[in-house]
Structure formats: C-alpha cells, structure tokens
From TrEMBL:
<dbReference type="GO" id="GO:0047627">
    <property type="term" value="F:adenylylsulfatase activity"/>
</dbReference>
<feature type="domain" description="HIT">
    <location>
        <begin position="12"/>
        <end position="66"/>
    </location>
</feature>
<dbReference type="Pfam" id="PF01230">
    <property type="entry name" value="HIT"/>
</dbReference>
<dbReference type="InterPro" id="IPR036265">
    <property type="entry name" value="HIT-like_sf"/>
</dbReference>
<dbReference type="GO" id="GO:0006790">
    <property type="term" value="P:sulfur compound metabolic process"/>
</dbReference>
<keyword id="KW-0378">Hydrolase</keyword>
<dbReference type="GO" id="GO:0009150">
    <property type="term" value="P:purine ribonucleotide metabolic process"/>
</dbReference>
<dbReference type="InterPro" id="IPR011146">
    <property type="entry name" value="HIT-like"/>
</dbReference>
<protein>
    <submittedName>
        <fullName>Diadenosine tetraphosphate (Ap4A) hydrolase and other HIT family hydrolases</fullName>
    </submittedName>
</protein>
C-alpha cells in the first residue's frame, strides 16, 4: 500500500480544527491565501464511500467553515475530473490576494 501523505506528514500542531472524522489544515501548495484542506481521518477513495453519518459531518463541517469564512469571500465547490499526474497544479495561475484569514484562525480556536 502506498504511504498516505495525509497520515504521515501532518503534525498535530499543523491541524487548525478537528472533528470526530476530519481535520483541517492549510494546503502546502495553496492556489490562494487561506487555501485549506479538510482531510478525513479514515481512508476513502471517493466521497461516495463515506458512511452517511460521516458524510453528514463533512457537510456540517463545511457549512460551519463557510460561515466563518463568509466575510468578503464567496463559497463554491469545484468538481474536477482528475487523473494521476494530470498536471493540474502546473496550470493553475490566479492572482494571490490577501484575505482576512487571521480572523478565521481566531474563530476556529473559539
């Protein structure tokens, strides 16, 4: 089995927020200021594999995070078909802007 980068390369101090089934961290290769990853504690290859209680927790956690981030940002979800080594990150080129992430971090610490 291939080593999971999310299991072995994220220290507890890097976790910004945690629920029973998910942890929130900053993306190590962000496409925008405040780019976050919500990572499942268990391994799933697809969203369709999540048991309903975990799927509900995911949606509730996303809604909570959107509520915290909603100051001057716009929430949306991308569904992008991907293949291994498709070069996606090499093609992303957007203007980096300063967003009010400090207030988000303070809210997460609650």
């Amino acid at each position: 089995m291939k080593e999971c980068i999310f299991c072995h390369h994220i220290s507890d101090s890097a976790v910004l927020y945690r629920t029973q089934h998910f942890k929130l961290v900053f993306d190590i290769d962000p496409i925008q200021t405040g780019h976050l990853l919500l990572i499942s504690e268990n391994h799933y290859e697809s969203l369709t594999q999540l048991p309903l209680p975990v799927l509900h927790e995911l949606i509730e956690t996303e809604a909570y995070l959107v509520e915290l981030m909603d100051e001057g940002t716009h929430f949306h979800v991308h569904l992008i078909p991907r293949t291994k080594n498709d070069g996606f990150w090499n093609m992303v080129d957007i203007e980096q802007i300063q967003l009010p992430i400090q207030s988000l971090l303070e809210k997460l610490k609650g």
